[in-house]
Amino acid sequence: MLTKRSKSGETTVACAEDLKWRQLDRRLRAIEQPAWTISLAQSRWRQCSKSVCRCDAVHRSLNCWRSGLTALTADLIVPIDIYTIDLGTNKLRTLHKSTFKGMRTLSELDMFDNHVEYLPSGLFESLVNLRILRLQRNYLEEIDSEAFRHTKKLFHVDLSNNFLYTLPERLFANNTYLETIDLSNNQIVYIPSDSFVGLRSLLILDLSNNKIQQIQNGTFHLKSLQMLKLSNNQINNITESAFESLSCLETLLLDKNGLRYIPNDLFSHLFSLTFLDLSKNNIMSILGVEFRNLGYLRNLDLKDNLISELPDNAFANCSSLEKLDLSRNKLKYLNESSFHGLGNMTSLIFSENQIYEIHFKTFAMLKNLTTLYLDINMLPSLPSRTFDYMPKLANVKLSNNPWHCDCHALYISAWVRLNEMKIWDYSPTCVSPWYLEGHFLKKLKFPELCAGQWASMVNLSPRLPMQQLLALNVTVNRKPQESMEEIQELREEFKSLITPFVEGTKSLKEKLRILKNDLSNSNDIVSELKSQIAKQQQWNWMNNIEIEVYLKLATSRHAH
């Protein structure tokens, strides 16, 4: 079965038998097709000018663009020593095989945007100096394997927007000067391994918007190729050595396919690659070895996939990487070493993920980063110093996160307030607690965020504006496996034990005394308190709970 798409977008399905009859019909019509008159006469250019087409003797060109031609009849006089012919945007369905007979000087032929269904064998036989051939936007379903045998000087072929469903073996075997081939927007399902054999000068190959499902070894023996476009196909399998001959490749587009994973060595021979697009696939994971030899890669697009985590040093060998787009994935956590070795990074996009936590040193190595998008995620807060390692940061998106506006939000609130001109989207707003919902983070300071009484010391920055310690309070919170009744009992037991415990611990008493005048060691107090508690045999039940330590603060004086 063969699916055919019309120019209006409609699709029809034809069986092999129908296709065979159509092929026969086209061959018969090509034989019966009239042919224009090819002239050697001295008056050939003057005679040419009398037709509906426009002739230019100076440039030796024939322009029949948009002339309403349905056939090339004998009353059209064409000089044999023509250089360029433009037959674009007409209604030609087929051509007689002698249409270009003897035109050995022809270097450019345009037949784009017609209704051409069939190219008879030998049509281009005389075009030994043809360099540019444009056949896009026609109805071609197949091409004879000998079609380009004699056009040895051809360097540009455009067959895009046709209905080609396969390519003959060795179709371009004699076209060693070809630099550009455009086969995009066809119906190609399969590429024979030797379709592009011998193309030692080819620089650009466009196979995008087809129906290719697999890429086999040996398909691309193209040592000069610089750009390969495979976008918007149905590729779900690429053999590991499919690209091993493409040592000069600079741009590889594999977006809008069905890839679920990246073979470890798929890109290992692409030493010159600078742009790699893997967006809009079904990639579920990255192991960290897939990009190890891409030292010149500057732009990596991984958006619209299913990636849920990034391993340590995932892109460590991509030392030239400047832009990384991971938007619209399923990332949840960014660890400390995911982006090590990326000192040249300028743009990092994480929009529309599920990120709820970021290590405060995640971006510590990105000294040249200017653009960071964290919008539309699940971030309730950001740890202190998260943005402090990026002195060039200029464009930041933070909106549409569930910002929880308590003491944990002091850092991000202060940063947004001091760097308001760097926020490129809507200013972030609080989602919780309920009494601060909808408030702009930038407008909230210590009294509003900490309610002037209690400040959590779990991740508190020593630089926060706090002056005087009034009291120490320690509480416990339920982990998911503990019932509320069990937690209530633990809280009561904890309350009865904590006061004598602190009073009986000399080191803690001394640190608490010092803490009243100097809050810089507050995190040490918390750490030691938890450590001392863990040593108590009678409190082994605390393994199943979370400890939170709070300082009660005076609000009458604040540091600025």
UniProtKB/TrEMBL annotation:
The keyword Signal applies. GO terms for cellular component: plasma membrane. The keyword Transit peptide does not apply. Pfam families: LRR_1 (PF00560), LRR_8 (PF13855). Keywords: Glycoprotein, Leucine-rich repeat, Repeat, Signal. This is LRRCT domain-containing protein. It comes from Pieris brassicae.
